[in-house]
Amino acid sequence: MKKYFALQLTTDFRMTHRVNIRNSSAYTATLIILLGSILLGISGCEEKKYATPQAEEIAVKKVNGVKPRNVIFILSDDHRHDFMGFTGKVPGLQTPNLDRLAHEGAHCVNAFVSTALCSPSRASILTGQYAHTHTIVDNQAPMPEGLKMFPQYLQLAGYQTSFFGKWHMGDQDDKPQKGFDHWVSFKGQGVYYNPVLNVNGKQVTYSDSSYITDVLTDHALEWLKNREQQKPFFLYLSNKAVHAEFMPAKRHQGKYKDQKIDYPPSMFLTATDTSKTYALGKKQLPTEKPLQVNLRDIPEWVRRQRYSWHGVDHMYNGQIEFDDFYRQYLEVLLGIDENIGRMLAYLKETGLDKSTMVIYMGDNGFSFGEHGLIDKRHMYEESMRVPLLVWCPEMIEPETKITQLVQNIDIAPTILELAGVEKPEQMQGMSFTNLLQQKQVAWRDKVFYEYYWEDAFPQTPTIFGVRTDRYKYIFNHGVWGINELYDLQNDPLEVNNLIRNHDYDSIASGLRNDMWTWLEETNGEQIPLKRIKGRKNDHLYQGTY
């Protein structure tokens, strides 16, 4: 914080000097007042660990002896952590290229996002910061001035950088963003077929059933072929897929039309007399032992959300059936997997396959009936947990399993370390390159979570929480309801809320204290409010102000 004040002093000193240079007495008085104000600010303000001065210019500190590594970061939208062929979660699901990344590289088994929502998560990936720090807390929040993203550091370190796909962070525009030498994007969520792309500031329209996942990969491969060969590169491929409403490539349509669906056991715990679509006679996923369920302490907001846009009994306002929804998701995934295969093939053809690191990740998970919910936003495993695969034959042993708790805020410092750049002070994540090489290092024992209530989807409250390798504490804020505590070792489906069980009081209070300490130390105690425009859009109160 003292560094910040010193910097601001220098800036304000110069401004005052320019204005009052002919009036030395006024200049002196102004300087005294300014110094006094700053000293009072220093003595009266508690220093925050991650305060980030927006006026500070980006400075790159290089690490000696590090050879900059090429990095390809591939992001998918709403891909849950276990919907990959090698996990065995979905019988018959074929993802040979994702499987290859896992078998020939590292699978981060316990990878999480700090906010399970597109824009906040993407901002956390790019900044290495929590949502309340970078302030892009929902899908409408503007991108603040002075926000620093890791590709900017890569540029200063001599990298050529490129971005392809869905930006959807801070605004709905498609204009080129800082940190990238080459830019291909689209507005908002984009479309699956015949997109309109912003290619380095020029609008390009596609037709003839051009499929977005294929088109973006085409652009990425073209850039790789024409890049400056002598420079290291960073390529960010940000897919629209697999965001709803799901539209698979024509070659994949109907591939899983006969897929048998195993319904999660927790899907039926919130069922009511009006839940006519689903019954306990449906096939359910088997459990290793009988479920111990605490029906009493399922939060009321979870029960009510069952009949909402994000609930299985009224999903997307009844526009699609659950079974079709599920199968189309699997088919859209095939386009992601095939295009990863195209990227790997190019690396092999050009001899880049050994030394280039490929990172694959989802921006958040996705529910398919667990707790009677679909979509994301909440803190249950299927929402906050994501796939994270890292492939680099030169430095990662095949079949590496990383069990430590890794988060989206760790991506930025990890890539910077690979580039030989020290982690900037404002980044709150940690590099996990040592974990990829299976080195024993000190690491976190818990991850934190935040989600802020949205007017567009009012059925989910503001949520804070903390997860260790065994326990999860969920603080449901702003509703008259109960909080949650789960023993994930004995209750991986999160159906036995232990919050009333006094045998767990010390665990619950300890985790809650950790959560509040985290918010205090990262300056996250203020719930950000954004102006709400327009009428309500939810199905219960639609059209009202």
TrEMBL record:
Q: Which PROSITE patterns match?
A: SULFATASE_1
Q: Sorted alphabetically, which keywords does the UniProt record give? A: Glycoprotein, Hydrolase, Membrane, Signal, Transmembrane, Transmembrane helix
Q: Where is each Sulfatase N-terminal domain found? A: 69-421
Q: Which residues cross the membrane?
A: 21-42
A Pfam family cross-referenced in the UniProt record is Sulfatase
Superkingdom of source: Bacteria
Keyword Metal-binding found: no
PANTHER family, alphabetically?
N-ACETYLGLUCOSAMINE-6-SULFATASE FAMILY MEMBER, SD21168P
Q: Which family does it belong to?
A: Belongs to the sulfatase family.
Which named protein is this? Sulfatase
Species in which this protein is naturally found = Ohtaekwangia kribbensis
